Amino acid sequence: MFETSEFPDFFKRNNLRAPSETERRILGTVLRAGEIGQTALAKATGLAQQSISRIVKGLLLTGALLEGERLFSGKRGQPGVSIRVAPGFAYTFGVSMMTDAISVVLFDFSGVVVDESHCDMPAMTRNAVLDKVESITQSFFDEHRIEPDRVFGMGVSVSGRYIGPGARYNTPRLLDDWALIDIDRLFSDRFDIPVWVENDGNAAAIGESLVGVGRRYDNFVYLYIDTLLGGGVIVDHELMRGCNGNGGEIGLLLPKNVYPHPSLSSLRETLGEYGHSFAYISDMIRNFDSSWSGVDEWIAKTQNSLSLIASALAAILDPEAIVLGGRMPESLARKVIPHIDIYNDSRRGKPRAIPRLLISKAGRDASAIGAAALPFKDHFFAAAS
After folding, report:
1. Assuming Cys at both sites, which of 80, 138, 225, 279 could form a disulfide with 328, CB separation 3.0 to 4.6 Å?
2. Using CA atoms, how far apart are residues 341 and 339, in angstroms rounded to an integer?
3. Is the fold of 89-206+367-379 the same as that of 216-361?
4. What is the CATH superfamily name and number for domain 89-206+367-379?
């Protein structure tokens, strides 16, 4: 992920210091647990109980953590108290730039989407997008009375391959106005806050790791199904970027013109052949009905493609789970999963373990939620060890 400031002004404005790596491990563990006692926290992080007690006390004083329910162990002495992440400690904005729309979310420190807005965009030009994002974020400020000093930063996700330096991406043609430029600078100049930029599939995978499937699984692959097919790979709660920052380009597993790509663009084309016509993919998603004629035909057409992808990911990465997400409607994902066949090899009657196929739990606007999570992930929430 790429940001405009190594030390966001948030810390200075609120008379705080940036958390240490150990504090980040504790915060990340508490966030993924939802609510946890100090004994369980020590076990999860491998830290001594005395260290946990001291660090948690400091995080409670800064307001990053809150005390929760009393925990009765059945032993003598005072009952312990659970802790949880404080929602109002900080906020971020998440912006997802798609080929035909934008989504903006207001995200609190506990990983909850406070508000969200989705807008179809006839043209994804710089000024049109920045003006719309400014209007939406101002409405969030007005409605929820968020103090500007409590806004930590903004995350932006965009479809495209990272080419560097900085936050430059080679975007699809429909995002020509955003190609090969410093996207973070455009947003930070307009909003005067630190900005992180990430590929949409990677952003969604990071969000899923913090507030979705990642609360149960440490290692998974995220399939980002949108206009195109992409994704992200999470290993021990960290994004696997690769040497050039483009790890997780799952769509490239399928050679062009050989295998049908399981994307929402191909779904729209198939539905059109059956009389369901949509000007934008956003329209199709908004009105989607899994019983439409053409849906089963698309599933059959892309079954081998998804099976090949899932089998390759299982063989090479051996993840705990493969998550279907992006903008794929949940009802469609439920119909698709039973048709994905992960090729297995049973030797001596003992087949190898294969990953679970799961539906994203992060939320509908996955890349916007992931984008909002980027600033927090970078400065506050680390893996347990």
Report:
1. 225
2. 6
3. yes
4. ATPase, nucleotide binding domain (3.30.420.40)
Collapsing DSSP to helix, strand or coil, 69 comes out as strand
Return the ∠ at Cα 362 (arms to 361 and 368), rounded to 5°.
150
Phi, psi torsion values for 372, nearest 5 degrees: -65, -30
Could you tell me if 257 and 249 are in contact, meaning their C-beta atoms sit under 8 angstroms apart? no
Of 244, 232, 218, 259, which is closest to residue 326 (Cα–Cα)?
232
What are the pLDDT digits (tens) for 243-298? 998 999 999 999 878 899 999 999 999 999 999 999 989 999 999 999 999 999 99
Single-letter code of the amino acid located at 59: L
Q: Which of 259, 254, 260, 297 is nearest to 275 (CA)?
A: 297
> Would you say 318 and 308 are in contact if contact means Cβ atoms under 8 Å apart?
no
Q: What are phi and psi of 185, to 5 degrees?
A: -65, -40
Amino acid in position 377: K
Hey, what are 171's tokens? 């975007």
The rounded distance, in Å, linking the Cα atoms of 317 and 30 is 27
Contacts 24+ apart (CB under 8 A), 345-354: 353/318, 354/314
Domain 2-87: CATH class, spelled out: mainly alpha
Q: Write a three-state SS string for 312-351.
A: HHHHHHCCCEEEEEECCCHHHHHHHHHHCCCCCCEECCEE
Sign of CA dihedral 43, 48, 50, 51: negative
**Amino acid code (one letter) for 328:** M
Highest mean pLDDT among 5-14, 104-113, 240-249: 104-113
Is residue 53 over pLDDT 90? yes
Asked if the model's pLDDT at residue 69 lies above 60, the reply is: yes
CA gap 84, 65 in Å, rounded: 6
Q: Which amino acid is at 359?
A: I
CA distances from 293 to 232, 234, 288, 303 (A): 31, 36, 12, 17
Categorise residue 347: left if φ over 0, alpha if ψ from -120 to 50, beta otherwise: beta
Instruction: Tell me the domain boundaries of the chain.
Output: 2-87, 89-206+367-379, 216-361
Parallel, antiparallel, or unpaired: how do β-strands 229-235 and 220-225 relate? antiparallel
Q: Report the amino acid identity of residue 34.
A: G
Question: What class has domain 216-361?
Answer: alpha beta
Q: Which of 165, 164, 156 is nearest to 194 (CA)?
A: 156
